[in-house]
Amino acid sequence: MTTLTKSKRRPVTAADVAAIVWAAGVFLGSLALAVFGIYTLVGAGGYQAIILGAVLLIVGGLLIVRYARLLMAIITERDMVRARKTARLDLIQLFLLFMLAIVLFPVLWIVSMSLDPRDLSRPTGLTIIPPGATLDAYKTVLTQPSANPVSFLQLLRNSLLVSGGTALGAIIVGTSAAYAFSRLKFPIRRLGMLGFVLVLMIPPGGTLAPLFVLLNTVKLRTTLWGLAIAFTSSALPFAIWNMKGFIDALPYDLEEAAQIDGCNRTQSFIRVILPLAVPGMAVTGLWGFLTGWSEFILSWTFLVDPERFTLPMVLRGMVGQYASGTPWSQFSAMAIVMSIPPIIIFFLLQKYLVSGLAVGGVKG
Amino acid sequence: MSSVTYESVTKKFGDVVAVSDLNIEIPDKEFLVFVGPSGCGKSTSLRMLAGLEEISEGNIYIGDRMVNDVPPKDRDIAMVFQSYALYPHMSVYDNMSFGLRLRKTPKDEIERRVQQAAKELGIENLLDRKPKALSGGQRQRVAVGRAIVREPAVFLMDEPLSNLDAKLRVEARAMIQRLHHRLETTFIYVTHDQTEAMTMGSRIAVLKDGILQQIDTPQILYDYPANIFVAGFIGSPSMNFFDATLTQEDGELYIDTGAFRVKATEEKKQQWSGASSSRVVLGVRPEDIHDPNYAPPGIAAAHVEAMVDVTELMGNEVFIYFKSGNLEYTARVDPRTDAHVGNTMHPVMNVDNMHLFDADTEQAIR
Fold first, then answer.
1. ipTM for the complex?
2. Are A277 and A342 contained in the same domain?
3. pTM (global) more than 0.90
4. Same-domain check for residues A259 and A339
């Protein structure tokens, strides 16, 4: 039996030349990188230089090995396919690393700042672990988060109430409205849906004045429930839009089967549609929660009693005109502490956020 | 157990008439098949009976009860969907027992019925599984199981076999027939597949463009199709049609297709002399065109000359695609035939089984 091998010899193209130049360039570049790494390591001043030097050396070394082998393949076997493939892959990797750096940099900076004991009036350069790093800022924000005599736990409770209420409201109203828009035939169905999407375009805060008047009238303005209702109203357009997309994708056959099995419309909604819409509801709920968790313009305008303040209001109070010199370390520590509950909720909902439950029930 | 009656039923979607003036009486325990090409209104007819579509005009009765405005859950029906429509979040057991639980059937009764149905369908070991973990054939059986545990008065099936492969389809066909036999309940079955219709139905209703073309037993539909559409739809391969003229000469009746001429037998002469126009369409089923060496003895034979265009060996028979002049037609002949592509043959047509249709009305002449 003979084996067929693809001939690797073929005319040299512009892409080949570019790949060769790229390979040679990276090879030389990684040599320089490694040398610079050794230089940094040897002349080490402090742990940061050691870390930097080591990282440079390792990255440079790996690149040298990878590209030395590639250049060998080009020279001895004229393997241009491999050269172009490697060039393309590494370019993509480079782009991804760049994006990763953009995403991670602020996080890294905030973490670093929260540990910094110096009372900087304006944050400047980045030191990964600042001199004299301490967790004092965390202690302060947890014990005395603001100038008002309100405990951190009270603020957390308020925030959870508002965010949880918003999430619940978005799920309940969003899902039932989306079901109506998706399945029922009524006169202004399309217009109504368009209206909701248009509301989505109004910038946050645009509805501030009408909401203020409305909630004042029903005497809910200064309460957390009033706030949750206001947030729900701004979370609803997305909630309905999102849930409608989800319910649209559920086969109508299932409801017809349920009707024949003995359900009325409400029963088929509760017993068939709702269990299948859980992943959509998880996304909607998470959205509602995040809306309530991070909003401070409405809260700042509506609430008067510090006992009812929420975490983002306190965070907002730490910077700006009336901040009276709150250290950046406390601001950063507060920001990090505040990001923990949404992370926990995300992990709790993860199973549903990625699930495709409805797939498989219909068709063979 | 119930009869079903369609009384002048019409369904319109906007300006489109999906079903037009449908009148059918389905006696208790019958297996009625709605058959027709897609868009003929067969599914709509079934869905109106199920209560999933509103009726535009007319009445539908289940037993003696008019059900026009009765919600599906109160019609005492069960339905098997083409997509099976199993609830993805429920186990097979819960899928099957869902309807009974909604009706507050006692627990032990539910258990008994589900177990019995599962045993009958061979899915006892699947009761704990979710639909996602089932094969196509298993899902189909669960869908049937969900219908039979309800013990309804009427079973509705909307193309329940179209998502199965050929082998499973044959098995499922037999399974459904056995069920009908045992349950002694009215079955109403929708399909686009004439083989399914022929093999399963006690009666077949052929629909086209929302209009009932003919309703009768499979044998009658095959032997006496009412019009060109039914003639072409029932039977596989389809009937051959030839544009022809009816002529009389010396007291004899001839059908002339241009490529060949057929002389009517005495019996056929009586039938065909009632034709209102001389422009007719001659219909001959492939199985009524024989290799001259293997033609059954005693048939009223019409001899034609034809060129063999293509042959297809099926094992127990051979399909020959003939050409005579500018006519093309199919024959289904004895496998011992020595037909070779390009050869000229003299196939024999059985005049007794020929069909004649009016060229304008497309109705059968008889």
1. 0.87
2. yes
3. no
4. yes
